Amino acid sequence: MAATQLLPSTTRRAGAGLLAAGLVLALLLALTLAVGLGSVDVPAREVWSTVARHLTGTQGPPGPHDLIVWQLRVPRALLAALVGAGLGLVGTAVQALVRNPLADPYLLGISSGASLGAVAATVLGVGAGGALGLGAGAAAFAGALGSFALVRLTAGRGSGFSPLRLVLSGIAVGQFLAGLCSYLVLRAGDEQQTRGVLFWLMGSLGGATWARLALPAAAVALGLVALQARARALNALVLGDETAAGLGIGPDRLRRELFLLTSLLTGVLVAVSGAVGFVGLLVPHLCRLAAGGDHRRLLPLSALTGAVLLTAVDTVARTALDAQELPIGVVTALLGAPVLLYLLDRRQENR
Q1: Cα 198 to the center of its chain, rounded Å
Q2: What separation in angstroms does the CA of 47 have from each of 32, 57, 304, 337?
Q3: Number of CB atoms found within 10 A of residue 56's CB
Q4: CA–CA separation, 109 and 51 (whole Å)
């Protein structure tokens, strides 16, 4: 049994509060570094003075890096934090949904469906604004919802609910949709468009603007509020359908609600950032080790941890190479895989 499972609930709450405060400070530091570091480094004092001047509407001469800070880097840093927070929430909800700590949007085919929708909108010319436009956003949401509905329909055949069957169905559907997505990319007539879509599929926040922050911000806020309101129900669902039903919770209805919420969030996140792996899988593990499995604490901590993690990852992706930006998915895979293997080994030792 893990050490965190032996702690009294009051100790866990106090520890979760301290952890949340530390994560908020870490997020502020990560955002400062994300805005300050790049091809042109900007001192932290200038970063915050520029942000304060724009937020308060104070009149005064713009700083030498005003355009870089306010128009380019701040929107991108905020988008990274929003996407990371959303992925942390989705990963936590999906793992409770299937009662499997190794589940994430990739494993259940949601990310593949969202990617297929967004790529189809881009390659086939549906909507305006390219891969990050509103047309692609709606298509990504439809793809995520459709893929999860297909997974649920496939897994629901027969009697009862089986988390293992749901995971296996998700893997099969996800691979099928990923194949269709690759086919559409190959069918793109424009070579430059093909390269752009492939780069975006590996995760990119290069198209971040102030106008594009509204949709993911609203989706993440809605997701956090909706999931937090169901935190006790998620705790019961993890213990099994019979336990949940005994506590007056309808497990089938709760799953349908979770399907819709996670599909909405995943579709929006994929539309603005591409498919970013490992965050939704890794973040809930880290938070459970630190604060236990109570979703009342786990959900907000996962959102904060995801925001810190992806903000830092995006900074690395922008600055690791002088002449080229790395896809975010490449960095999360290189960093996330060893950490996840370590966590799995540690969980095995604690049993």
Answers
A1: 19
A2: 7, 15, 22, 33
A3: 8
A4: 39
> Among residues 59, 89, 96, which one has the least CA distance to residue 244?
96
> What number of other Cβ atoms are within 10 A of residue 309's Cβ?
27
**What is the sign of the dihedral through the CA atoms of 104, 109, 112 and 116?**
negative
Residue 243: what pLDDT?
Answer: 85
Q: Which of 86, 112, 121, 125 is CA-nearest to residue 306? A: 86
pLDDT tens-digit map of 18-73: 899 999 999 999 999 999 998 899 999 999 999 999 988 876 677 788 899 999 99
204: nearest Cα among 310, 47, 308: 310
Distance, in Å, from the CA atom of 280 to the CA atom of 270, rounded to the nearest integer, reads 13
Among 68, 23, 83, residue whose Cα is nearest residue 308: 23
* Neighbour-count burial for 108-133, b at 16+ CB within 10 Å, e otherwise: bbbbbbbbbbbbbbbbeeebeebbbb
Using DSSP's 3-state secondary structure scheme, residue 127 falls into coil
Length of the chain: 351
How deeply is 155 buried, as exposed, middle or buried, from its count of CB atoms within 10 A (0-12, 13-18, 19+)? buried
Which pair of structure tokens corresponds to residue 174? 């996800």
Cα 76 to Cα 135, 187, 221, 276, 328, distances in angstroms = 21, 30, 18, 15, 13
298: which 2 tokens? 């786990």
- Average pLDDT of each block of 10 consecutive residues along the chain (351 residues)? 46 77 96 94 93 83 84 96 96 88 80 86 62 61 83 71 77 91 81 75 87 93 96 91 86 86 86 86 89 92 96 93 85 84 69 59
Tokens representing 211 are 């106008």
Q: List CB contacts of 313: < 8 A, sequence separation 6 or more.
A: 80, 84, 328, 331, 332, 335
8 A C-beta contact, residue 184 and residue 122:
no
Q: Tell me the DSSP string of 52-81.
A: HHHHHT--SPPPTTHIIIIIIIHHHHHHHH
- The helix (run of H) or strand (run of E) holding residue 176 is helix 163-187
